[in-house]
Amino acid sequence: MSSSDLTDKKGAERLAVWIIIAMGLGIVFGWLVNIKAISVDMSYITLLATLFLRAIKMIIAPLVFSTLVIGIAHMGNTGGVGRVGMKALGWFVVASVISLGMGLVFANVLQPGAGAGLAPPTAEMIAASQEKLANFQSGVHDSGFVAFVTNQLIPTSIINAAGGNALGENKLLQIVVFSLFFGVALGSLGKSGQTLQDMIEQLSHVMIKITGYVMKFAPFAVFAAMAGAVANQGLGILLTYLKFILCFYLALVTLWLMLVAVGHFFLGRRVYSLLHEIKEAFFLSFATASSEAAYPKILDALDRFGVSRKISSFVMPLGYSFNLDGSMMYCAFAAIFIAQVYGIEMTLGTQIAMLLTLMVTSKGMAGIPSASLVVIAGTLAQFGLPVEGMVLILGIDRFLDMGRSATNAVGNSIASAVIGKWEGELLSEEDAAKRRSTLGPDA
């Protein structure tokens, strides 16, 4: 192993350690604020997490566009794109059925909502929670300084900053579709399109470099995110919903084990090397409750593992639209939980219909905090369940979102590695080690 490889490895491990430390410090700090041991305006603390997530959203669109276009152009023909796309979509459909099915099974077997002692929400609770959810999702705060920094300093899209509208909304699925067309067209130009292809490839290198800069800020954002969640809800909220939280995380751990087992079937013992490479992305997505935050680091980890960038840059964006394993499990689990709390019996046929509905409505979910709440609300309304039940899980959603976001990162990483192997685009362990030695410290 070369000296540069050792440096990169140590740097990644240091960042992972700092993220874990920041999580612990954030919990302690938030608890002290919650019990009034210290007095702090938390809007200034959570601003760190807000700015980090906005910075991530700012680079996602150009990063996905540039890496996906180059990956498709390097495939050379539409047959290659279609073949990889069909394999990826086939994997995602199977993973979706398993994730949603496990959510339904665990919710029915463990009965987290039965005898929970949670009364149906009052009108005042519903109104307050709706306002809270709207503010949380928009990231808008009352403080003039915080509002200025949040809304004016860092754009969520460079196109929005330039006065754009729809194209600047960072809708990942739409970006993927446009990039697919663009990449296929660029690849079909052959030599005449080489100049533009080289420019876009350089753009991808620039975006990866920017990603390295942004990621150095991750521990501060993790600290702020954890502190804000605990300061707002307190540790007591975890005890109130302890059964629901434990049941859901038991289901998630089971799903993790299943994903690793499937990865072991296709990748052998190398799957454990993959898990080692993505641990930084895992902790980052867990602490920030954002799959999107981990996207650049997963690309980096897959590079180091030996997956061809033309595969990872194609499969990963598709996965973030179609393969959010943790989020899909949560949607099914939470819907059944709410029905149980209200004492509503759901037949097997109704639950299967719900699973099929979630197969469709869960696609294209953004990998950002609490995005699945919108899907759950729509599902509840469609199947005659009280939408007001959303209030019952809103208080702990952040803690649950952490687990499902980390699961999304694991699922898409394994999917990319397996599809890379199927396509013959996965380097051997020896060649992967050589590749790591050529990667710069910010790669």
Shape: globular
What is the average of the pLDDT values? 77
Number of helices: 21
Order of helices and strands: HHHHHHHHHHHHHHHHHHHHH
Rounded to the nearest angstrom, the radius of gyration is: 22 Å
Low-confidence stretches: 1-9, 139-143, 161-168
- Let me know the largest β-sheet: none
Helix amount: over 70%
Distance between the termini: 17 Å
In quaternary terms, these chains amount to: single chain
Strand content: under 5%
Structural class call reads mainly alpha
Total beta strand runs = 0
Structure explained in plain terms:
There is one protein chain. The chain has 443 residues and is mostly helical. 78% of the residues lie in helices and 0% in strands. The protein has 21 helices and no strands. The two termini are 17 Å apart. The N terminus is likely disordered.
